[in-house]
Recover the amino acids of this structure.
């Protein structure tokens, strides 16, 4: 209240007839009779001390959403880690490495495992810490709490709250816990809450306190306040509450309207007092918190299969080696006098089978290097870094709301590059949910000259189409004209944004500045304005600085109406218990006259009634019923003589709907005093009656009153499209993505928005599948049959269509969808939908959104992305492979459930086409390379073992193997995963067709994977056999020494390090200093390690002691064999990629070349042409529209080359403005 | 949103803080790193690059291959398999019996003809075949601590099964030491002048200096019930037992050579060398071959044609690849950056 605002204290309860009428005092309901389990909570108000000890000890208001705490972290995080099969395998291997079976020393098995698991756990710990900090942020919020018996409120952090505490919550603060509402700054104990965080609804909800607690309306009155509450146990149900309130030895029943839920916000109310009932995790919102399902990307699922392939390979070679070992032990070892048989242990020729079996375990550990231990941890690290880049992308930062993009889960990055179908919400996602008063129709005359964005889009499209046509026309005339510029953004003309008023975009001089008085129907216009100014439930708030009013309305539409009324000269300025005052200024130069209307009744808006009315008495004593509502509802309630403007208004309403506007019809009725008073008596009686049929009685009475109306006019409010939506949809369509719109709106609005976004266009065949209104009475089988017939007919039509350019749009409504989604029909429906270029589902419930998403996901087997902003999109977001939430205006529900959050729909283009494309390629290449390097290394162990009588001896020192995955080869591959770019971000955006490499999975198909594995196999053979042949018997130095196992092992290992690091250099196409550094670093580290390790005392380094400095580096053959092996290993790959690029180049190869030779600068024409051609075949988006139009014109030209008439082209919405431009 | 219209706010419930100052704190900081715009070199495989790369490999590899082959050709190597020749013919069991019989005469004379002048130093190797010095049980059976330190004499736990005999620790313990190769060779020329075999400095210097203690003497060695290979002079410290040091460097493969000594005089072409050898080491029980090798070395080491051949083959292959690519480019050139190769131009159905 510090903002200098003045608000009249008024009994808000009288504004609401149904929602919060208070039964008279004497008719208090019986207290709830409940007992037993589920209703055990006992709250002693204002005595928090009682709740500090048992048996009434409840949890504190401290909340924690962390997964772990200090004590549970270790066991829980470890458990999580070892749920992964690969990690469990390594754990087993490490455990077995402590036994004599192990081919390695224990530390070389345990150290990498500890490192890898430690890293993953460190990541968990950091994430947990962030969550903890977030929690603490909430926990440390301050709230006024009553202390002791002093009647004094002090600020305490939320976490210190206890059950039974009395708190005072001020305006625009969040409730710290679930509270029992005692009293508010309104004298009748009403308050308004916004539950956006709970259910995503933006309209305000009314709560009302018990009458007995109304006197508790200042701080001091809580000094001796004592009461007890008995109520239900904590549960997640947001809309129910059962309990009794015992005060002054009286019992009062409680219901949900007295409960203020945690995380909802106090609005429009100065302050409220409340008692904490449920604190912390007992509160309903916390009970509701569900974990979003963990999703895994396609690549990762495929990688799992790959791991299984490798496991199979591992088991296979282990079996070979154990059989080999058994045979050797049985038949040959008895002859080897220098290795006496071991009759107790592993080397027992008499029990060769047993030896073979125990050797199987040895072999499984030995060849464990086939399974890259660091794969998971590297991928995780890479994904976190990729997510960081997504979060940091300045092009996805919304200046308006100050929100950057946010990758909420990092494990789906590469999935962004594989999306096939986008399922989008409409309101808040494609549109802003910001209402602007744009047009109106009064007495059958349309007012408002400004075009809606839909019209503007259509107009600019039209202009562009003509442009495109002209170009085409001139090209056929053998001239080269300018290329079609697709990036035309429709800008509203003649509107300076300076004098834009929020909620009001109306422009028409006939009505503005008092000019309406000169219009022929000025009486009706006056009435229209009065309805605008009177028929609402908003509260004015004076802004003292500017002297104007702000309106606190329940819905943005209503706010737009009041702003419009004010701009027309009817400023709603005051509301009291029983009156509404409007400052009317009929002539601009005159001082406004304040006119007071007696407010008799309000028949408020419900979604069932679809209308609201007020009954007012003006200063002449005339009683009026003013009504606004959905056109269909109003039209059926008109009186016979009230239909004067019906036809004209209907026509305008259709036009408005066509232009993508939301419409309401206005009507009134004059009432005789006697008629009114007799009705009012009945109404009051009903209001004060008790019992379940009270509501239906009230509704019935309202129904009686709201009839015989006289139509005044209609309004059209624009639900604005979000910035850049049509452009973004166009690009996404060019990238080959299919876009479905799922909306709760009605079919007409949805179609309008479809046109606005170019999802629909003229010439597209619309297939509307609906249930007719008269069919409602039929049995469901009949309806179903009818729908089935519609679907089969439509499918036939689509299949029989011969024109390759024909496009179909499927439009289906929610009711029909219930049938279409049933098991026996859904595949027919899906097949039809896939054949259609765009699909729009209207009037769908949140559940249906999720079901449709599941149908697409499971039916097509392709990757789906769902994008939405509200709580109603949560199901869809969680169901889709990727859920994207729009962060910003609406509640956080969708964002909380999403995997990625962006501020605007248009950022989706960059998220998918740039980041998705990059991440997909990075991860795919990274995984392929990972398997390559581990096969190349792991198989050399196998070959060597075959030469040691399958005894399980490794040629490498334990330390080499330990460092291989963790240090020596991991950093370049991480750099590949984080920094690789095939083409720059601009090119990704300019050539949307490149995106299709992801959905087609060109970089992670089995052909490619096995290619890489084959490369690994080849590399292992080269490394092993070249070195063996070179080193096995001859002296390797001029002073005669022959190579022992340590020398051979070190040489071979060096070759592996060189080969795999050269390989990754060949794989990369983008080298920043980081890649250069890391590849170099890996090789240099190996030498540094070798030198340092060789310098350690021989007790530690064993046979490696001084090996590099003394034995290897002076030997030329060492260096020669490295060069030979490294080149020989990479030769086939180099030849392959050279060949591929030369004769079968992929798109990004060609573009890289164009860029490399700067051809894009030299030959701008070619570059522009390719940019415009680089798209997938699509039938949606405005480029497709242009194509269709060009085809159309070409066709016409061919047919009759006589005259070209631009009139022949008809824009989807033909309005004066559209054709004028 | 419109900050310039303070007079009007519908106060829609959905926009809680319209006029709040922009929260720019969350604005990502621009840096070339975070925007993934770091300068980078983006090499692409143009035909020029591909052909030059292959040619470069050819140009580097062929000379290396030739030089290696020449070096290898200069090396003179005489290999003589003596295991069967030095023992009375018979079945395998008889051979084993012969070799295990301590009283049988194992002296054997071989004569080798030098086909090409051998410059000193001439390295004498023995080569064993089918001998698994790399078997895990064998490799592990040693104690580096014991070899290094006199104090760690009893550190024989890793030496199973040759860790102790008669209740006392064996120095050096373990299977490797126990199975020490013990054939001996002495050489003389046709005119009966003795060719001295220098057995010093045939092992790695670091092994002598650091890994085998100069104060560790063999003890209780070959005193067990089973006699393995050679015996050691108990008065010479391990650091000077170079045969043992060489033997303890286990070989990587079942076929291996180990240095026996050096002959530090030149031997002329056509010279015959008489070798008197004591054929004591048992390879007969597992049909292993024994060979005596005399070899000179080049800068590359011993006779190793393979590396030269490998270099030549890789170089040749690269030459082949380079010429293939050249021919293909000449026959069917692809203009680089030719947009007609873009997928949307190649299959017009895509558009």
């Amino acid at each position: 209240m510090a903002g200098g605002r003045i608000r009249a204290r008024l009994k808000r309860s009288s504004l609401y007839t149904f929602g919060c009428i208070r039964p008279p005092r004497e008719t208090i309901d019986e207290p709830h009779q409940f007992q037993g389990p589920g209703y055990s909570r006992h709250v002693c108000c204002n005595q928090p001390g009682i709740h500090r000890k048992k048996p009434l000890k409840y949890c504190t208001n401290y909340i924690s959403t962390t997964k772990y705490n200090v004590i549970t972290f270790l066991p829980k995080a470890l458990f999580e880690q070892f749920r992964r099969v690969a990690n469990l395998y390594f754990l087993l291997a490490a455990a077995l490495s402590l036994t004599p079976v192990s081919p390695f020393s224990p530390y070389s098995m345990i150290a990498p495992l500890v490192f890898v698991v430690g890293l993953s756990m460190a990541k968990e710990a950091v994430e947990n810490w962030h969550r903890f900090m977030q929690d603490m942020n909430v926990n440390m919020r301050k709230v006024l709490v009553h202390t002791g018996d002093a009647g004094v409120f002090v600020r305490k952090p939320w976490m210190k709250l206890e059950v039974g505490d009395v708190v005072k919550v001020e305006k625009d603060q969040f409730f710290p816990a679930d509270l029992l509402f005692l009293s508010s700054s309104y004298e009748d104990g009403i308050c308004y809450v916004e539950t956006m965080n709970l259910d995503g609804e933006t309209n305000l909800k009314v709560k009302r306190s018990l009458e007995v607690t109304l006197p508790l309306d200042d701080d001091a009155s809580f000094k001796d306040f004592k009461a007890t509450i008995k109520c239900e146990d904590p549960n997640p149900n947001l809309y129910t509450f059962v309990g009794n309130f015992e005060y002054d030895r009286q019992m009062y029943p409680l219901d949900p309207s007295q409960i203020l839920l945690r995380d909802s916000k106090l609005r429009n109310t100065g302050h409220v007092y409340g008692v904490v009932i449920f604190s912390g995790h007992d509160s309903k919102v916390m009970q509701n918190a569900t974990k979003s399902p963990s999703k895994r990307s396609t690549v990762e699922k495929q990688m799992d299969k790959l791991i299984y392939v490798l496991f199979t390979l591992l088991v296979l070679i282990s079996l070979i080696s154990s059989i080999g070992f058994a045979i050797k032990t049985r038949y040959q070892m008895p002859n080897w006098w220098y290795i006496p048989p071991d009759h107790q242990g592993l080397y027992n020729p008499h029990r060769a089978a047993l030896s073979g079996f125990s050797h199987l375990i040895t072999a499984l550990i030995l060849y464990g290097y086939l399974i890259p231990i660091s794969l998971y941890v590297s991928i995780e690290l890479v994904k976190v870094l990729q997510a960081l880049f997504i979060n940091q992308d300045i092009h996805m930062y919304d200046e308006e709301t100050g929100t950057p993009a946010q990758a909420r889960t990092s494990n789906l990055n590469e999935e962004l590059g594989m999306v096939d179908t986008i399922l989008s919400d409409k309101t808040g996602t494609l549109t802003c949910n910001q209402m602007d008063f744009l047009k109106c129709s009064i007495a059958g005359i349309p007012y408002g000259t400004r075009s809606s964005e839909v019209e503007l889009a259509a107009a600019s499209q039209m202009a562009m189409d003509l442009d495109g046509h002209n170009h085409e026309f001139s090209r056929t005339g053998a001239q080269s004209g300018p290329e079609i510029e697709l990036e035309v953004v429709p800008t509203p003309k003649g509107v300076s944004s300076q004098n834009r008023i929020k909620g009001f975009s109306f422009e028409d001089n006939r009505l503005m500045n008092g000019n309406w008085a000169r219009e022929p129907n000025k009486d009706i216009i006056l009435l229209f304005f009065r309805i605008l100014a009177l028929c609402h439930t908003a509260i004015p708030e004076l802004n003292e600085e500017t002297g104007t009013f702000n309106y606190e309305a329940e819905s943005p539409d209503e706010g737009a109406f009041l702003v419009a009324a004010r701009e027309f000269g009817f400023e709603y300025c005051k509301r009291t218990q029983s009156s509404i005052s409007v400052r009317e200024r009929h002539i601009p130069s005159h001082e406004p006259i304040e006119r007071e209307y007696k407010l008799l009744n309000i028949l408020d808006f419900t979604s069932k009634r679809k209308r609201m009315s007020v009954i007012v008495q003006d200063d002449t004593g005339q009683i009026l019923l003013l009504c606004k509502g959905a056109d269909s509802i109003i039209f059926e309630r008109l009186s016979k003589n009230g239909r004067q403007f019906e036809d004209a208004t209907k026509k305008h309403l259709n036009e408005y709907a066509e232009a993508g506007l939301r419409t309401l019809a206005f009507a009134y009725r004059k009432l005789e005093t006697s008629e009114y008073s007799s009705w009012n008596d009945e109404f009051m009686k009903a209001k004060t009656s008790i019992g379940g049929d009270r509501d239906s009685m009230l509704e019935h009475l309202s129904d009686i009153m709201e009839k015989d109306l006289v139509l005044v006019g209609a309004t059209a409010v624009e639900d604005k499209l979000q910035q850049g939506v049509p452009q973004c949809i166009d690009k996404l369509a060019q990238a080959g993505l299919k876009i479905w719109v799922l909306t709760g709106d009605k079919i007409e609005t949805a179609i309008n928005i479809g046109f606005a976004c170019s999802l629909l266009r003229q010439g597209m065949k619309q297939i509307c599948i609906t249930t007719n209104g008269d069919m409602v009475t039929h049995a469901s089988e009949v309806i179903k049959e009818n729908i089935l017939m519609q679907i089969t007919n439509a499918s036939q039509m689509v299949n029989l269509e011969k024109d390759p350019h024909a496009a179909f749009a499927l439009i289906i409504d929610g009711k029909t969808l219930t049938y279409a989604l049933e098991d026996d029909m859904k595949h027919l429906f899906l097949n039809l939908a896939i054949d259609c270029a765009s699909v729009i589902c209207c009037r769908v419930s949140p559940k249906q959104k999720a079901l449709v998403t599941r149908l697409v996901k499971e039916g097509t087997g392709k990757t789906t992305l769902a994008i939405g902003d509200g709580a109603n999109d949560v199901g869809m977001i969680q169901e889709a492979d990727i859920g994207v939430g729009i962060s910003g205006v609406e509640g956080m529900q969708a964002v909380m459930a999403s995997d990625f959050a962006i501020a605007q729909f248009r950022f989706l283009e960059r998220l998918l086409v740039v980041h998705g494309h990059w991440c997909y390629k990075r991860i795919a290449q990274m995984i392929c390379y990972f398997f390559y390097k581990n096969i190349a290394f792991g198989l050399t162990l196998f070959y060597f073992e075959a030469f040691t009588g399958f005894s399980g001896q490794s040629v490498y020192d334990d330390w080499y193997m330990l460092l291989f995955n963790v240090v020596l080869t991991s950093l370049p591959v991480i750099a590949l995963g984080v920094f690789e770019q095939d083409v720059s971000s601009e090119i990704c955006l300019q050539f949307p067709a490149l995106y299709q490499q992801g959905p087609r999975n060109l970089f992670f198909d089995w052909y490619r994977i096995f290619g890489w594995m084959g490369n690994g196999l080849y590399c292992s053979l080269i490394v092993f056999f070249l070195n063996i042949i070179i080193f096995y018997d001859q002296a390797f130095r001029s002073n005669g020494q022959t190579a022992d196992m340590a020398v051979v092992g070190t040489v071979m290992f060096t070759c592996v390090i060189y080969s795999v690091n050269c390989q990754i250099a060949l794989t990369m196409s983008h080298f920043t200093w980081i890649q250069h550094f890391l590849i170099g670093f890996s090789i240099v580290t190996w030498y540094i390690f070798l030198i340092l390790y060789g310098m350690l005392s021989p007790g530690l380094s064993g046979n490696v002691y001084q090996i590099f400095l003394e034995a290897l580096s002076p030997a030329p053959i060492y260096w020669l064999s490295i060069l030979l092996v490294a080149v020989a290993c990479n030769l086939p790959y180099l030849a392959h990629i050279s060949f591929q690029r030369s004769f079968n180049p992929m798109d990004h190869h060609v573009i890289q070349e164009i860029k490399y030779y700067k051809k894009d600068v030299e030959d701008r024409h070619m570059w522009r042409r390719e940019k415009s051609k680089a798209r997938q075949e699509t039938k949606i988006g405005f480029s497709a529209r242009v194509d269709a139009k060009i085809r159309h014109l070409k066709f016409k030209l061919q047919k009759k080359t006589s005259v070209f008439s631009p009139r022949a082209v008809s824009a989807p919405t033909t309005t004066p403005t559209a054709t004028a431009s | 949103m419109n900050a310039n219209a303070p007079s009007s706010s519908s106060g829609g419930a959905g926009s809680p803080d319209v006029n709040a100052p922009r929260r720019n704190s969350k604005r990502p900081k621009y840096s070339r790193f975070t925007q993934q715009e770091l300068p980078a070199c983006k090499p692409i495989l143009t035909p020029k690059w591909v052909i030059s790369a292959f040619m470069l490999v050819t140009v580097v590899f062929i000379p290396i291959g030739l030089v290696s082959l020449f070096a290898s050709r200069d090396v003179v190597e005489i290999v003589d398999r003596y295991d069967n020749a030095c023992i009375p013919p018979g079945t395998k069991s008889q051979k084993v019996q012969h070799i295990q019989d301590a009283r049988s005469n194992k002296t054997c004379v071989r004569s080798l003809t030098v086909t090409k002048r051998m410059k000193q130093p001439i390295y004498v190797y023995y080569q064993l075949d089918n001998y698994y010095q790399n078997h895990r049980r064998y490799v592990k059976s040693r104690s580096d601590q014991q070899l290094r330190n006199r104090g760690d004499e009893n550190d024989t736990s890793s030496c199973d099964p040759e860790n102790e005999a008669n209740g006392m620790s064996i120095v050096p313990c373990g299977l490797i030491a126990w199975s020490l190769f013990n054939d001996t060779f002495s050489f003389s020329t046709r005119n009966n002048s003795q060719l001295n075999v220098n057995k010093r400095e045939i092992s790695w210097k670091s092994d002598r200096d650091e890994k085998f203690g100069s104060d560790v003497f063999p003890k209780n060695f070959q005193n067990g019930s089973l006699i393995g290979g050679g015996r050691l002079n108990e008065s010479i410290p391990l650091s000077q037992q170079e045969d043992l040091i060489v033997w303890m460097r286990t070989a990587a493969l079942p076929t291996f050579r180990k240095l026996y000594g050096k002959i530090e005089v030149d031997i002329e072409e056509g010279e015959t060398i008489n070798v008197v050898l004591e054929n004591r080491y048992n390879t007969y029980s597992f049909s292993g071959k024994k060979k005596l090798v005399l070899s000179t070395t080049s800068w590359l080491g011993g006779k190793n044609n393979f590396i030269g051949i490998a270099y030549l083959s890789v170089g040749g292959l690269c030459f082949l690849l380079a010429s293939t690519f050249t021919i293909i480019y000449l026959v069917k050139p692809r203009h680089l950056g030719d947009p007609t190769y873009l997928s949307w131009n190649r299959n017009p159905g895509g558009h």
